[in-house]
Amino acid sequence: MESNSGLTFTVTSLLSQVLSEALENFRKFKALVEKQSGYNIKALRRNRGGEFLSNDFNLFCDKNGICRELSTPYSPQQNGVTEWKKRTVVEMARSLLNGMGLTVHFLGEAVAAAVYLLNISPKKLFWIKLHMKHGRDENHETKGLHALYIPIEISLSALKLHDLDIISKSDPMAVVSLRKRDGTLEELGRTEVIMNNLDPVWVQKISVMYQVETVQTLVFHVYDVDTKYHNIPVKDLKLKDQDFLGEASCALSEIVTKCSRCLTLNLYGRNGHVRKNFGEITILAEEIVSSRTAVEATLRCNNLENKDLFSKSDPFLRISRIIETGGSIPICKTEVVDNNLNPIWRPVCLTMQQFVSKDNPLVIECFDFNSSGNHVLIGKLQKTVADLENLHTSGVGANFISQPSGFRGNEKDLKGQLFVERYAEKQLYSLLDYISSGFELNFMVAVDFTASNGNPRSPDSLHYIDPSGRLNTYQRAIVEVGDVIQFYDSDKLFPAWGFGGKAYGGTVSHCFNLGGSPGPSEVEGVGGIMAAYASALQNFTLSGPTLFGHVVNKAAEIAVESLKYNQNKYFVLLIITDGVITDMEETIDALVRASNLTLSILIVGVGSADFSQLEVLDADNGHRLESSIGRVATQDIVQFVPMREVHSEQISVVQGLLEELPGQFLTYMRCRDIIPHNISAAQTYGPRQSHAQLELEEELQRPSNS
Q: What's the protein's topology in the membrane (predicted)?
């Protein structure tokens, strides 16, 4: 509530837990508190977001000038998540029916199976940052850990199992578990029991959600189920009553990164005891895909209304899907085009999971960007994907409309129009599709050796090597990121550099080999990086200043060289730093040049310095980086996470860093029509890059101040 003097008061009340009663109760509540206080209600905040408000409730608030605010999302019932959950279950159920060739008569069973798959999937607490202006729902934007989950089905078979039965053969059953961080096992599922068979091929599949950003260790146990338990459902069997046949373990990443997505492991006894006749187990991982269909469209506008006083509007589009309750869920947003009333945006990609059907209504809103978060609505319109296709075919534009808040039917056509410059339907491929067809993620690391880290001999230094073996923040970042990325790198030879350091008796170098050798910069494995880092602290003194440009250019040179030979490699550079960079312009120039390469850059900020510059490099505010000569980055290739912020939220730094990596990888591949098939990929990958390679090589050879 707000008084005429500007003072704000908060009144809390439980209106109703039933949707149909909420409006009437709120009418009475509003009349009562406004009469008693003499003030008008200005804002309404519901602790379940805004998803369960009826259309009449929303209209009532609009007519009375009441802003509806969103509370911080923290449960599946808030801010459209329930609608998303429902869509997920329905789409999974449809996928199951289609995959098995079943009719809708089995929809109930399919829904039950979908819910079961979701419930057995590993859960985690998402790190969510909300950038809200006064909590108003029209300005909210979330940034944080989006689900990097990929649904996987595991099939199992075994060979030469140990025979524990005297008269007949063993009756094997396999159990799959996930080893959690504390070392305990979480059971994911069990196969059926196969009678009298030492070479079983189990039919029952085990579902697991593959998480790109973490190492998931799977443990496989095989048991001989006693005859007297054969009539008991496998889920009810007590494992301690069954005879143990062997166990094996591996990281899920080891399986899915194989070209065949298949891995065979030797079975061992308890506590790793080795015996020849334990046999072996084979694991096959298959990705569950509901639909690969997507629409790629290039959108532009003409004659937009100018909302700025001293310049032109900075427009961007937000596309939302209308849900059954009458609200909408944002599914896509373009970049911001500065100072332009006739903007054309980079292509947007809408997946079938996002728009569900070509006949589902979408709301397309055009905003004038404001750095404060108070984006001004220029106009909006409602179209389906089919409508967008028709606009492209006909070449005509669709007028935006302006609708006074809360007054339906009073729409006003605006001069501004939306055009669909390009429209194409295509098949999407997942990260695993590319990995299993031979693409690799190659890891590189660069470590800050500037003096602001403190004397490495002092326990207060960020570079202090603790004799007890406790890792410092640099070591933690190297291990956590390296342990994940290494599975996608076949030779596990990682370039490792330092910057801002000085060899004893030498000069400051802003890109030196961490291992100290004058030749190749590669070291072997994550352990090699750790050893090279410890050695460099003995052989280099900390100096300065903090310059990123050199290591970014070095990584870009490696990526360009790889493109020359049509290698199916995508590079991931990890930069760990503690301070403010002093070559901001040169760094941005280097990043813009590298944005057209097979390269992503992960930046970890350690210590307590001001990292606002690094947030700018991350370009998550909708503005892509622009070089000193006016060239705009092809795509955002940087992800920044401050170590202190991540650990204060009790999640891994890897989760924050790898948030955008799959999207950056896939964007690069899709924009160049690179498909994950060995022959086709090679054919597409070479010729389409030739001109770009020459252009990039020329730019990399130019002086940094050009």
A: Lipid-anchor
